[in-house]
Amino acid sequence: MPDPNGFLRYQRQLPKRRPVPVRILDYKEVYPPAGEELIRDQATRCMDCGIPFCHDGCPLGNRIPDWNDLVRTQQWEAAADSLHATNNFPEFTGRLCPAPCEAACVLGIGDDPVTIKQVEVEIANHAFDLGFVKPQPAPVASGKSVAVVGSGPAGLAAAQQLARAGHAVTVYERDDRIGGLLRYGIPDFKIEKHVIDARLAQMSAEGVEFQAGVDVGTDITADDLRERYDAVLLAAGALAGRDAQETPGRQLNGVHLAMEHLVPANRIVAGLQDTTPIDAHGKHVIIIGGGDTGADCLGVAHRQGAASITQLDQYPLPPDLRAGVKDPWPTWPLILRNYAAHEEGGDRVFGVAVQEFVGDENGNLVAVRIADVSVQRVDGVRTVVIAPGTERELRADLVLLAIGFEGTEDQPLLSQFGISRNRRNVLDADQGWQTSAEGVFVAGDMHKGASLIVWAIAEGRAAAAAIHSYLGAAGELPAPVRSDSQPLSV
After folding, report:
1. Which of 289, 369, 385, 483 is the residue whose CA sits 20 to 30 A from 144?
2. Which CATH number fits domain 245-403: 3.50.50.60, 1.10.10.350, 3.10.320.10, 1.10.3730.10?
3. Beta bridge partner(s), residue 284
4. pTM for this predicted structure
5. Which residues form the 4Fe-4S ferredoxin-type domain (predicted)?
6. Complete DSSP assignment for 195-219
7. Per-residue pLDDT tens for 321-345?
8. pLDDT tens digits for range 277-311
9. Left (φ > 0), alpha (ψ -120 to 50) or beta: where does 379 sit?
10. CATH class of residue range 6-130
């Protein structure tokens, strides 16, 4: 029974982030561990609604009211069990997910929603610190084997589910370390990599085999996979970065895709290289794009010692609160989102678009020419309209394109399996998560397109359930979403 007055007695409160002057000197996570009293009070705000819409906000179907009340009563091990029942990696989602569950919290109709994400990550932290996270190897081997291509959240979730069901699972990753974008695409100030390593250690003890530094399709072919395994899951993400090739001056020295900046920066933090070819130190940096990746570039540029940073967004400045009937609860609201990196400095300019990258006689970037714009939709077609007379230049030595991803990369493995990308440059799947190739399944961003980490884990779990059934194994695994499931929206 929850505390019926909890939301009346306590206001929404998050733990204080590490001070900006301190945290920009390193890459450690911006949030220190939260005190138990704070987390207990925040969990007490949960009303245990008769219809908990937070369940629909999260594709994993997390039992949020259940583990909130267990935290309220200080039953940490039971809370961890309840959380892990639906989420393989709450230590990832509690740090990285933007929390659509909070947008769907019933308390959010007339008050600030429960700090679901913060409670979640503290449960996960307690679970590791107190030794609740233990390997769960299958008691009996099935005799079946599965190859998982890609070691991001979708591939790892599927691998863990299948290994616990008794199947022999091998995860292939082309990078030199396991983790996908979690490893090299997301800075340590959002998730330190020992967090990933702790979960990988559990999975290894459960029988999952990891093969890093293997480019599937080149180092090992589709025929090799078919010969060695009974099923294959493709979970290689959607890493084809959206570019700005049509913008004049794109070829200038100093204009780069965001991942070209983030990956080497993360490798330096990991001690795998000493320098990066794209260093913001002393430079005037322009970041194009206002989402998560842009904020990641912003935080890294601060830590590299940029002279100035300006982040550009085509869309107008969003409101601080939901726009009433045009943006109704419990859908994901269109509001201004401030990331930790925005506290650290830099300027944000909304409602503008780059018209040209300006260079010098040596082919080096010196400025960007921008103009005020409005984004309109006519007959469903998105059009950017330039406001006359608003063009001006911003000084720039480095431009980082953080304008999203265009789908999964075209790669030899796909043609070897006889699979084609669809018009969105991702792979189609039938209701059983199977591609057009027999015994070859797909999950995560490679199927859905670039999306949230909770969707990747949910699809990985659902694809694992489909593969388990395909292999003729006894019983059923949980499948939180269908292959045609979509986020909660108007």
Report:
1. 483
2. 3.50.50.60
3. 308
4. 0.96
5. 36-68
6. HHHHHHHHHHHTT-EEEES--BTTT
7. 888 778 889 989 999 999 999 999 9
8. 999 999 999 999 999 999 999 999 999 999 999 99
9. left
10. mainly alpha
